[in-house]
Design a protein that fits this description.
The protein is α+β, with helices and mostly antiparallel strands and 529 residues long. Helix content is 31%, strand content 30%. The strands form 8 sheets. An 8-stranded antiparallel β-sheet has the order 28-25-27-26-30-31-29-32. A 7-stranded mixed β-sheet has the order 2-3-1-4-5-11-6, sandwiched between helices. Strand 2 (72-77) and strand 3 (80-85) form a beta hairpin. Helix 2 (24-34) runs antiparallel to helix 3. The radius of gyration is 24 Å and the shape is globular. The structure holds guanosine-5',3'-tetraphosphate. Guanosine-5',3'-tetraphosphate binds next to helix 2 and helix 3.
Amino acid sequence: MSVIENERQRRRTFAIISHPDAGKTTMTEKLLLFGGAIQLAGTVRSRKADRHATSDWMKMEQERGISVTTSVMQFPFGEHIINLLDTPGHQDFSEDTYRTLTAVDSALMMIDAARGVQPQTIKLLEVCRMHRSPIMTFINKMDREGRDPLELMEEIENIMGLRCVPFTWPIGSGREFQGVYNLHRKRLELYRSSEGGGGARPEEMIEVDLDDARLDELIGEYAAEELREAVELVVEAGDAFDLESYLKGYQTPVFFGSALNNFGVREFLDTLVELAPTPGVTETSERLVEPNEDKVMGFVFKIQANMNAMHRDRIAFFRVCAGEFTRGMKLRQVRTGKEIRMHNPITFMAKDRSLVETAYPGDIVGLHDKGSIQVGDTFTEGEMLKVTGIPHFAPELFRKVRLENPLATKALHKGLTHLGEEGAAQVFRLNLGGDLIVGAVGTLQFEVVAHRLRDEYRVEATWETVDFTCARWLSGEDETLSKLAKLYPRNMAKDARGHLVFLARGEFQIRSINERYEGLRFDATMEMV
Ligand code: G4P
């Protein structure tokens, strides 16, 4: 087996998707503990606390330096190398959050047992769907009173359209939580509270069949009977696990646990390395690229700017899709045709940024950039390939830019173009009147853009609210488009690359237009070109 193939098979690259507060940070921390990447619980948490202490810009800027290390975390787990990509939530929620999901091979969906499926998870899952990423599910906070597990699974099936296959089944919840029965491995895993933290501590595991009388002794007659009944119901009514169905994103293995108490985390990690896909083929404009090809190919899915205010440096996050990436090698930036030497690429070993010598398919490398790299850029060893499926996502929040000084229009355009390329926000120009509308998916993006316009482009801009809540890329026959432009002059705009966009007051408006005019296409994503 080639070195590349061997390394590829060791890799699992995934992200956690969840609604804020479901326990993503806690889970990340426990995973890193298992990987030996951090010694003590609390490292990720304290960073998170800093992040939310204030939205003051200085703080944010400092945090950017910190959060880059939490953007990608690589750690070993047994024979495997795990790459965990952060999908920022809370105020940091942005298009990057979506695009990160284009750079992973699978995802873990975390759900708060008391809250069930929540809006942000739904959105993120939709993006996973677009990429046909397989999903595992962790129902968290079982140490608290939660909702009925069957009801939660039903909700996941109904709202997310995923068929749930429980790998573990909980025994009680809240104060009565005794642990889980592992249906996959046919054993009882007993829960002991670790009082709010704890390290990587093995659960007490007892191999026992469900109909074994020992089960009654271990967890009590009542709980044992309840467990048998529930499992019977689940097994009868549900699907058996089918690897192919999971890999295609139809079925999701479900785990119950408590990240805070480090319960069920190990089981998830074991299953991840056992079942989750290794880095696979990549679709490009020209052909499918196999990960074990000799030549390097990869793409940039995120750019993080202002990591060091003194140097204006930016880090481009590059996912290696094929070949063996080595420090100092020359790669071609396909969009411009330029050859760029990979001088000081960095890797992300949990806490520290260190220089990377080699990287393999599935790995993420940080490339230093002075402004010439764009999100969506493909790099190869010469072949003219363009990775597809790293789209712009339609923003959901909109503001009109108002300039304090009208003479700064040119600088404003330049600034917004750069920030748009970087993926900080999207910019649209209204056909009528030429006003600039900035679109985002998280409110903090507006703060970031205004600050950076002031700081880097000397432009004082303020925001005005507008009544758009929805954007769709528009295409269709010329005649219908011009009819639409006459009827809705206020809604027609162009994006930074000149594509036609319809800014709507809500999805209902799009639906109603769609019903009345044939041959129009409203797209919620637009391929980057
Ligand atoms: P997030 O990154 O998804 O936003 O969630 P995070 O891990 O920060 O967890 C949100 C809150 O839920 C935290 O409490 C965390 O301690 C708690 N939590 C996470 N997992 C579990 C669990 O398994 N059981 C219980 N009972 N709680 C859990 P907090 O009070 O907001 O923060 P902190 O004071 O604990 O830091």
